[in-house]
Amino acid sequence: MQLSLERVTKKVGAQTWLYEQSIAPQPGAVTVLLGATQAGKTSLMRLMAGLDTPTAGRVRVDGQDVTGMPVRERNVAMVYQQFINYPSLTVAQNIGSPLQLRGEKDVAQRVRALADKLHITPFLERLPAELSGGQQQRVALARALAKNAPLMLLDEPLVNLDYKLREELRDELAQLFATGDSTVIYATTEPGEALLLGGYTAVLDAGELLQYGPTADVFHAPASLRVARAFSDPPMNLLAGHAAAGGIQLPGGVVLPLALPDGVGGDVTVGLRASALVMRGGEGNVSLSARVELAEISGSDTYVHLKSESGDLVAQLIGVHRFELGELVGLSFALDSVYVFDGAGKLALAPSRQRQRERKGD
After folding, report:
1. Of 163, 160, 341, which Cα lies nearest the Cα of 268?
2. Are 127 and 88 in contact (CB under 8 A)?
3. Mean pLDDT over residues 157-161, rounded?
């Protein structure tokens, strides 16, 4: 399905929920809508589904204007945070209902296969009321996948699941979506989820569509500071700088010898991803001294919050590391890991993708 939204807006009373935007998700691929709560993801999906009508603009499917066409007349599968199942049907009957409606063969076998992938096989003969919230969400997800609709809309479908199961299902969903049978729109607040699913990513913030493109391209070349903030977990380190002779001057006297594009001068913002900062034996082109304010262990990574003369920083270290509060440590980073944003917040310089791959040895 080729879905396209042309200059759509959505207003509710005096409030603007979606500012004018156009997007045509890649057919047969996954498009992730990435943004914080109230960024406009659900509002945009409701326009796509036909649950709401845009205040202005058009919605087209395969070139046909479907603006205002109700959802029941569209071939769409939807899963929202608030799961919906048929309460009087068993789990197996819920999953198999779209297959039964189409008169499909081998319904029981296909239901079992989906249940296996979503880890709900032991519950096939139970009613939804006998399941936990996370289990019910997986039933709703399995039913949507069984429908095999040309357009599938998933609004944070894993948010109610525990961490371990969420990680497992992300991998399963990425494989299921890779078949290209459906155009998938997947909303999330988590940058890591967008990177795992791949495909394409649309970054939204406060009702505005900021950037859309292949996920890796958007991540490695965020068009603005707003995109960089949204598509970075932990948040990208942002330092105030000033373009001067020989490069960029940071507070504390550090100079980054970077050649900026013509027309970029004055105050700029330097961006560094947390994973670009190295400590304890790591080597980089630029060195800083900083004091440890907090060290958090999350999974197999350690996040170290630091204060330096150039600004506050967070370093993401692989493995479990111990630090004393107030400890003076040395930081370093490579020049080819630096982002630069101009005075208007637009991307002026991004790390070379090739240099990043060489530095990681892949």
Report:
1. 341
2. yes
3. 80
